[in-house]
Amino acid sequence: MVIGKLTGLIDSTGEDWAIVDVAGVGYLAFCSARTLGQLQGVSGPVSLLIETHVREDHIHLYGFADRAERDWFRLLSTVQGVGAKMALAILSSLPPEQLTQAIAAQDKTALTRANGVGPKIAGRIAAELRDKVGSIALGPGAALGNGGDAVAGVAPVGGLAGAGEDAVSALVNLGYRRVDAFGAVARVSRTLGESAPLEELIRAGLKDLSA
Fold it and tell me: What is the pTM of this model?
């Protein structure tokens, strides 16, 4: 039996799990800190999207607040060396929109903030998933009932080339984090156009970062 969604009342929660009471049956689902945070204090029914892992010795359920987080869990799990526990740790450290930005910016340092993720595995995640992030839904579309259709301030998925990449490097040399510099340049590039000169991208990027 594969479970794709659970709707019920929160019975209890722990460091990385929640028990959802569905008609008197308690289902234990492992969750990210982000999802658990959204469950805290909810007295009414909640819904979790579920990824079911069936093994010879166990059946584990992994619960997610929205489709973006579930899709990122699936995508992270395709990288060699990234298991379910590490994927949840990454999602606990970086919510989907920030994870998308980090991969697009090839910001390996951001990935290493997750428990258990070292430089080597961070580099592998960034390299293997860079061309795949376009398949991830950025909108929160939360199963917990959160509204909204898009994530404000998130730059378009994909890399930057030419003057855009040079502008990112210039901002990083000025002390900004690569993921922030990438986001700023990507946002101003939408307004200025792909042919904008380097100096203009840097100037606009600095203004965006200081806003």
Answer: 0.72
